[in-house]
Amino acid sequence: MAKRKQDSTAVADASGDAKAIEAPSSGEQTVAAHETIKDQTVSFPIVGIGASAGGLAAFESFFSGMPVDADPGMAFVLVQHLAPDHKSILTDLIQRYTRMQVFEVEDGMVVRPNCTYIIPPNRDMAFLGGALQLLEPTSPRGQRLPIDYFFRSLAQDQHERAICVVLSGTGSDGAQGVRAIKGEGGMAMAQNPATTEYDGMPRSAIATGLVDFELPPAEMPAQLIAYAAHAFGKAPKLAAAPSPKSENALKKIFILLRAQTGHDFSQYKPSTINRRIERRMALQQIDTMESYVKHVQQTPTEVESLFRDLLIGVTNFFRDPPVFQALEEKIMPQLFVGKPIGGSIRVWSPGCATGEEAYSLAILLAEQQESLKQSCKIQVFATDIDNQAIATARVGLYPASIAADVSPERLARYFSAEADGSAYRIHKTIRDMLIFSEQDVIKDPPFSRLDLISCRNLLIYMGTDLQRKLIPLFYYALNPSGFLVLGTSETVGDFGNLFTVQDRKIKVYQRKDTLHGASRIGLGSFLPPQTAMDAALPQAVAGIMPNRKKLTLRELTEQALLQQLVPSGALVNVHGDILYLHGRTGMYLEPAVGEVGVYNILKMAREGLRHELTSALHKVAAGMEIVRSPGLRVKTNGSFTPVNLIVRPAQPNAEAASEPPLFLVILEEAPPETDVQTPRSPDLGADTQVAALKQELRAKEEYLQTTNEELKSSNEEMQSINEELQSTNEELETSKEELQSVNEELATVNAELQNKVADLTRANNDMNNLLAGTGIGTVFVDHGLRILRFTPPATKIINLIQSDIGRPVGHIVSNLAGYDSLLEDTRAVLDTLVPKEVEVHSLAGMWYAMRILPYRTLENVIEGAVITFTDITESKQIKAALSEAHAHLAEAVVATVREPLLVLNADLRVISANPAFYGAFQMTPETTLGQLLYDLDDRQWDIPALHALLGEILSHNAVFNDFEMTHEFETIGKLTLRLNARRIFTEPGQSELILLAIENNPTPESGKQLG
User: Fold this and answer.
1) Is it the case that residue 525 has pLDDT exceeding 60?
2) Greatest CA span in the chain, whole angstroms?
3) Which residues are within 8 A (CB) of 807 and not within 5 positions of it... i.e. 6 or more apart?
4) Angle at Cα 136 formed by Cα 134 and Cα 140, nearest 5°?
5) Phi and psi torsions of 253, nearest 5°
6) CA 860 centroid distance within chain
7) How far apart are CA 349 and CA 326, in angstroms?
8) Prior bond to 649 cis, omega within 30?
9) Average pLDDT over residues 735-740
10) What Å distances lie between residue 533 and 270, 452, 522, 526, CA to CA?
11) What is the mean pLDDT of residues 160-187?
């Protein structure tokens, strides 16, 4: 397996009951229900949902798809790009679409199942020990990646119980988090790009090739619940030996994998393989291994999916910073020690995945080379068995979220941002250092003459037998004193005699020679077939050099022929740089004048050879065919030597296509020409002409050299300008990214505000219909008594039109009759905050109950007054009719009563009297009505006892019954009278009345005697 990750050795329990922890009741308070605890074991899946622009609609669709009659048995954590200075209303909006409790996260809040948690503004959020932790953001606003930040912490804490969902949004936030969660055995979903408002984030997640489901948001909850039921709803498995039946099923899966992919996983650790297979079974909702084998047989695409899952690795730039810091400070400088000018530094990164670690090593080497000002050729070989990962690494294009792992200085120097700001591309200077190839480190030949091998977190997936084969293989591939870097959970095991420990903490080892001065163990011991490799390993490990075999007759013959036929030759690259010389080449090559750097065959070629050699090398590089140039005359020591030139590719096999092309230059002395006679006396005219041509050629060469220097100078200036423009472009790209981030936040705020506006519009419509339906005239005024709003019924009372909004209410003519204190009463209410109610009537004869109330906001702030007019005309008319009916009834009753009756007002004046009174006391209406009771009949009724009785009624709301008095009347004589009196309550606003009943000639024992 040529993938890597930091995997936990202990497999977390994958069978916890999703409903083991009950959700808090609706009456519990947020803080009480989510106390802060440490290291709580979470036994249910945690679903992290990330979204940016357009995420509100996706959230609504997602939660609308949740079951309404059952709990999902998992917790949901929503992470969205929010403006730091805007209070989010996302909690209130989500609450409408789910039966679960929804909380805005507080620091240390414990996560419960069947609850939803929402990140607050201007915070990064992480998951640790069953609780959500809030942190102050450290990255600039435009470079924050809160979704990746949370997904990574969720993966590290929950492993296979972590689930991530990437919804609508721009940019690439979430892609690195998907890698982290998949690397820990979790599950990943992404919104179908066709259903998004902004498809940047879902497409970046899908481009990783690690997304399990690509669905519309409304279909995600059902798939989540089905996956959780299969993955976590089973009973815990006991740590027992697997049954023979399951072992056979596993072997069948290995056979199917090997047949389709060509890779054998049978020697990998069973725990890792089983976890990946169980995960695939949960995704496909298959319960038994045997059923899964049938599914794999019938579905070839499932073999590829399982293969990809087995290769999942967590990798990122400069992963495990302490390791890279130690490499930068301790190991990298040693790689350059003793390297000649133009020498090469070779590094191998097996299991490179998508290339982040290989590029990180190249960046460290480039920085070290620049600091030492040493010119060396750096080659980093990066290999993996995953062709998709290698294809991604070759492109060198990574999501913008790598900014979380790469320092701003390195990001600006070694990366260039794409035009849309969604990704970074590695610079060509670093890319040219790397050679990517698809390779299975188990069965394919290794690279050789290496200075450093970085194989971190690859061996932890392999069984002991594979590890015992790979460590000696690495030993063979390294140069003397070369370095081997392993993962923090890996060691060289039983091969400690092959390496010395350089750094035990970060697992850096240095190769040492233990085999009698030999610099290598032997190529045949480590290359396929593996049977030969296995046979040779014990001798190599023991430090015993294999016995040299006796040369065969064929080998003896070949060596003798090579000694007899010794053509001169050179191995060169496409630029003509000499890598290896064979034979005596001094007759054809000589060192060039000037500073000695890399020896180049084109510069060293003698006169007569350079032109043809340059042309032949270009032809071979273009066509990869053999080029022959016979009979060249090369000037050597003042004479000309005939030479046959042959240039041919040195790598004819397709297996070496990933290596830089090399070419073999063969210089073979040709036989002398016998048919050409040498002239005894040179032609002086021809010599003169040749000398002139040479002088002209020399002048042209000088001119071309001068022109070339000028072009170089111009090129340097253009390069300087280009660097300045590139720096400006990077600054603009940074500004663009920040603006894009702000735009995402504004889009989120805009979506929330649009939702809020829709709510307010609905509420406004409801209020308008409510006010119009009640028929109550309402006028809203501010502190300055300016009209803010009014309802249609109010126009019947005050002559209002729509253009009157904003005008003082006192400027508007009202239709009220007898009431002109509206302004004063409204000001009094605003000053005292005491409501006022008055009955008023209009010129049209309509009666209204006018109420003036203070206008209070939700924060209990007074911002004006509300004047309402309730139509009470009908009730007034009913009251009047009742009063009139009562009056007629009273008059009829009074007229028919035989006892004398008097009706007095509050001043004790007679309002009315019945005929019995006039007859009994011989009085007339003219002398009675309107008169003070005590003045009647020439003050005959001015009786002190009657004064006291009536005064008590008026002051104490009392009554008196059966009080008798005897009085001497001048006209009718002495009478004994029994008096009954009580107050009569009338309508509001009218004076109160007293009804006095007088009974003549009572029996002596019936009452009290007054006089």
Assistant:
1) no
2) 198
3) 786, 787
4) 135
5) -65, -40
6) 39
7) 17
8) no
9) 66
10) 24, 23, 10, 5
11) 86
